[in-house]
C-alpha cells in the first residue's frame, strides 16, 4: 500500500481502518472483560497492524497510530479518556518505534 510517491500515507490509513473497529469493540466490552483478555485482544488484533512494515514510515504518520494505541491501552486499563498517559509508562508495553525495531 505504498503509492507512486513512496508515501506511507495509504498504508497508515489502511492500518487505522483495520485498528479502529477493534478499539471500538474493546472500548464497548471493557467493563465485561478482564485486563488479561484485553491485552490478548490487543496483541492478536491491533499490535500486528501497528508494527507491520512501519520501520521506514515517517514519525508524522506513526503519530496518528500512537494516538490510537494510547486510546486502546486506556480502555484495557479501564481508565478515563483524559487520564494522562505519562502515568502508564510502567505498564511494560514498548513504544511503537521500539516494537518496529525489534521485529
How would you sum up this structure, described in words?
This protein is an all-alpha fold and 103 residues long. The chain has one domain. The chain is 61% helix and 0% strand. The protein contains four helices and no strands. It has helices at 9-29, 35-51, 59-76, 96-102. Helix 1 packs parallel to helix 3 (59-76) and helix 2 runs antiparallel to helix 3. The longest helix is centred in the first third of the chain and has 21 residues, at 9-29. It comes from Corethrella appendiculata. This is Putative membrane protein. The chain crosses the membrane at residues 49-68. Keywords: Membrane, Transmembrane, Transmembrane helix.
In short:
The protein is mainly alpha-helical.
Topology:
Layout: H1 9-29, H2 35-51, H3 59-76, H4 96-102
Helix pairs in contact: 1-2, 1-3, 2-3
Query: So what's the overall shape?
Result: globular
Q: Which strand-content bin applies to the residues? A: under 5%
Q: Give the count of helical stretches.
A: 4
Overall mean pLDDT stands at: 80
Keyword list:
103 residues, mainly alpha, Putative membrane protein, transmembrane, transmembrane helix, membrane
